[in-house]
Task: structure prediction
Amino acid sequence: MELLTIKHQDFKMIIECTKFDSIWHKAKNNVEEESLHSTYSWSEGVSTVILNHYNEKAITIENNQQAPAIFFDNTDYPIWIEFKDYVKKAQFGSSLQNENEKFTFRSQILAGFLNYGNEIGRSEIQLIYQVGTENRNFVFSFEVLSTKLNYHEHWKTIIEDIEQEYRMLSLDYMRRTFHGFSPNASEDTPETIWWNVFAYEQQKFIKACKNIIDRPRHRLHGKEAYKRADRLTFIPSCIENELVEHRHDSSYLYRVEERVWTNDTQENRFLKFALGLITDKYEVLKKRIEAVKNASDVMKSDMQTTLTMLKHLQQNPFFRTVGNYKGMSQESLILQKATGYSQVYRTWTLLHRSYSLNDGIYRLQTKDIATLYEIWCFIEVSHIVKEKLNLSDEDVDHSNRMEMNGLFTWDLGKGEHSRILFKKGGIELAELIYNPKNSERENISIGIKDWTVPTVTQKPDIVLQLTKSDLQEGLKMTYLFDAKYRIDGKDKNGVDVPPEDAINQMHRYRDAIYYKDYQTNSLKKEIIGGYILFPGDGEPADVAVSKFRKTIDEVNIGAFPLRPKDAHNRLLLEQFIEELIQNKSYETISKVIPQKGTLLKVPNRLLIGLVENSLLSGYTQSFLDGNATVYYTRPKFPTTISLHDLHYFIPYIKNEGVRDIYEIVRVRTITSKEAKQIEGEDTTDDTRLAFELCFSRKLFENYQPINTHKLINYTFIDSSFDKMDEWVVADKF
Result:
């Protein structure tokens, strides 16, 4: 399908797309049609630009005016440029080598195709061709839009949210699209700013330097000189007596001060300093860029030309008469307003400023939208967890945040390097980890401690671990969230559906990632649930009953739509995370579906037993110290208490209360003679129970009273964790 035709004095260009109707329909379903517009612009020599697809009719569009968009993400666009017979050596002029390799010039036709993948924003088609001995360039500029999100609204929100949390993380280099940024007051000057901003300013900067060298600003400067009397044009009063004294000596030299013009001014010193530093910085960054395999020959040639011009200017004889720059004692009006100097000073200022997305004129490149969406989802989940735990900024520790990606842009740290800890009063409540990579070989810095993957490498996007202590001290319940910048159509209610392969990936994660118990050298299941986050839309009531939401309740795998400025569907994710936080661990485990043929037992039951408070007894003291290893019952143990599923024991110290909890390792029978607490008494041959114990943790910092009316035979309480309210008098921890 022919989408757009450009008639130029030297050629005719046609842009096509075979499946544009379905692409346009998909975009309209996800984004309002009035937002699916692009601003088109082009260089000189064009007679007409005709848009062919809109409402099945052709319309003529004007330069620098908005019209319906034709370029979208992840779409192939065949492009044909038919040059007139006098044109020679035509080529595609992208800064990326692989883009240029997609175009070939044969029989006066330059043909190829473009696919922007997940890169959205403003882009250009640049043609370089030769007419006679003249090299000509043509640039056609437009916007590449998203079929899933509103580029003019949602993308900007994503960038702003990321930049607020991780300054300069959004920026990238060697991309096919760019965006308008404006300078702000920040002091940050990452090297990607130098590269991108100077690429926009370099020709103006070089021209300004040439203008200054040709017509520099100079000033009068006092210079000491020695002259004979006949050479003096002016006789200062300070040498009048000396002149009378040596009036008969025609060869005598008199010391005088002359006023001469000099280029050694404060402003010229700044020019020398700025030119030298920019040249050195540009050379370093040029070498880094050239090392990137994707850099095109056109770009490398332009970089070399620019560096050669900068070095040529730096070596100009003009600078031999200019001293070293030592700073400004006060503001210079010449630097701010004088021709040439103001451009040099402006470029220098721009290179030392940070930038914010504000529809500015400075072109900066950002990471692709899929990566940005993934980072944004991580930030959104962290905000929800913080909100639902009622924490302040001081309770959130995320000191390990960003790291260099090898050149001069930033990536969000992976695994342990990105951990966000949520604490309250020094107690860890939750942690969030971005992009851990776990395999048999990689399980330290970029993985998660005690995780193991026996088969192939696994790399979930977002890992949420909630710390629970109702069953076991510091037990971590693990949930996975995977951000996918994809939508697989709509269901019968008009709700966007997550990609099917992403749901399958959640099943794989849950089955592939294990917890390694190094004490018993055994593997245990780690992942409780996995959930896709995708930029879907739909009525919240319909989303709540959608299949991908209902499967979360059934098998703990499903999806949540999450897009900027969609507070209603975000609420579904908020409510779900709040449930995860509030649920006790035994409630969560009890809902885990067991393997067929196995019985899943949730360690929920516990026994509270009386311990006589006698400081003379070593047996009692062991419980007070929290290092008891056995508990002996009296001769008669209540028959109403079942032993087979008891998991925990809580000692009730008479006149003190309860504090500690022990895990019951084994229950056995003993004779009264074996019971240490009755030594010295008349022993009988009765049988008693002995509970072998292992200290688990403290339920409370201090002893708390219990409801003694619940005691069976004044000695025991048979209960469970979910019934603690019935026997603990104090508030639970």
